[in-house]
UniProtKB/TrEMBL annotation:
Species this protein is from: Paenibacillus dokdonensis
Keywords recorded for this protein, A-Z: Glycosidase, Hydrolase
InterPro entries for the chain: NAGPA
Protein name as it appears in the record: Phosphodiester glycosidase family protein
Residues in Phosphodiester glycosidase domain copies: 174-353
Amino acid sequence: MNLEMKQINRFFLLATAPFLGLFLFLLFSFKPVHVEVDTAAYVPDVTLKDRTAILKQDLDKADQSVKVTISSIRKTSALYKQTTTTMNSIVTNAKTQAVRPEYLYNRRITAKLGVPFERVESDRIRIELYKVNPGVYKGYAMKVKLKDPAAMQMTLGRDNIGSSETTMQAVSRHGAVAGINAGGFADNGGKRYPLSTTVMNGEYLTGFESSFKDLFFVGMDNSGKLIGGKFSNKTELDNLKPKFGATFVPVLLKNGQPMPIPEKWQVSPKRAPRTVIGNYKDDQLLIIVVDGYSESGSSGATLQELQNKMYGLGIKDAYNLDGGGSSSLIVNGRVVNNPSDGSLRPVPTHFLFYK
């Protein structure tokens, strides 16, 4: 038995010896494994919560800042709108105040004329027609406000020197809303020529002629203002930059003062149909056309009467245009006055007004 047991023990010892040796080798030859943990990279739960709380506080502050900014923008916008409204109101009031003197002046001069019986209004021109009847003559006054300088032009009879046409023909041919006869003329060889210096479209029709005797030039400059007077040389007239104009006799008012009427024109004829043109200090025009049944001197108005009339109406400068049978006033396609010839007389120049 003991022998068998010894043999068995020896067998097991031999069988397990290699494994036991390997175990002892492994046990004494390997070093222990050391694992290090980066504590800096590790954030405890408490720190994460704190950071979350801080982030929440920052977001709350940002939200509050946004709300304050939005409120500030709204207040600024409201203030801007209020300021804009105030400025617009100031501008509107300023414009109203700026035109008020013109409005008051216009009311004052219109009050002297009475109530217009006809009116033409556009963005280019305003025309008002009045009756003139002081008891010794009858006629019509036409007050014109040129909003556009080009709303008034001068035309030549049939666009040819020596030709003539009635004011109605000129108005119709050029599509004007109103028209009057302009300067004087001289007949020669069956043709009718404008007197002396005549300007069309800024050009001298037959050259410049120095004013002599009682002749004067009257017309408009490039800005739509009435110009006129006696000119001894071309430079004097050129300085006024005439756009168009014609010649006749005599000057009635200059700078608001009556001018001496030559004796010849006081009696030749004494009374007659007349056409006169003048301007107010605000550059509105006033045209008076007086009726008469002939050129014999027994009907119509004297130049002295028209001079006094224009002066009393506050006219600054006034000029007598061709009269007698030449006097004509056309508005809205009809003859307003009563031509002394019984019909309109063909003349070489006309002042036309455009709507």
